[in-house]
Specification:
single chain, 78 residues, alpha+beta, two-stranded antiparallel ribbon, 4 strands
């Protein structure tokens, strides 16, 4: 009778550990996109800080430089 209890307890511990790992992984992989309006209104902008910027490219604003492969464009909230 003691063996099934040990298996249940061990299984519960393993399940809780896996659930904790999944929750931690999901929290760390959540990506928040900043809109252009939010970025321009932000007061804590720091040089060198990376942002994930989301928006729409303004029609006709795309400029390509074939020599350097650089692309420039304007971004809008839509």
């Amino acid at each position: 009778m003691r063996r099934p209890r040990k298996f249940l307890l061990g299984g519960a511990v393993i399940a809780l550990a896996l659930a904790g790992l999944v929750v931690t992984g999901v929290r760390q992989s959540v990506v928040y996109f900043v809109t252009p309006s939010e970025l321009t209104a932000a007061t804590d902008r720091t040089a060198g800080k990376a942002y994930r910027l989301g928006g729409m490219v303004v029609k006709g604003s795309l400029q390509k430089d074939p020599a350097t492969l650089e692309q420039r464009f304007l971004l809008s909230d839509g």
